[in-house]
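TICKET: design request
STATUS: open
ATTACHED STRUCTURE:
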């Protein structure tokens, strides 16, 4: 299975939705909790091409985007192959 990383905060409803979708897919993910590790915000911004909003999601190092992009990928049928490492 692919390596999934999600930069998130505790209070963000889009973060909750993204984590819920990934969990429903059976995808293990590493959550980078920016409330507990605020020093990682600059890392996220650099990896996400300047995006400052959460969540920011990466699959095998590839920037997927936020909740809207993850959800669009799921609707288009592209999330399962990506999580399986086939995309």
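STATUS: resolved
RESOLUTION: sequence designed for all positions
ATTACHED SEQUENCE:
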């Amino acid at each position: 299975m692919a390596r999934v990383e999600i930069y998130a905060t505790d209070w963000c409803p889009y973060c909750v939705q993204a984590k819920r979708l990934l969990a429903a897919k059976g995808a293990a993910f590493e959550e980078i909790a920016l409330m507990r590790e605020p020093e990682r915000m600059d890392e996220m911004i650099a990896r996400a091409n300047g995006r400052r909003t959460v969540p920011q999601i990466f699959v095998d190092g590839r920037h997927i985007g936020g909740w809207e992009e993850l959800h669009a990928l799921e609707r288009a049928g592209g999330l399962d192959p990506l999580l399986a490492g086939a995309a």
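CLOSING REMARK: DSSP finds four helices and four strands in the chain. The chain has one domain: 4-84.
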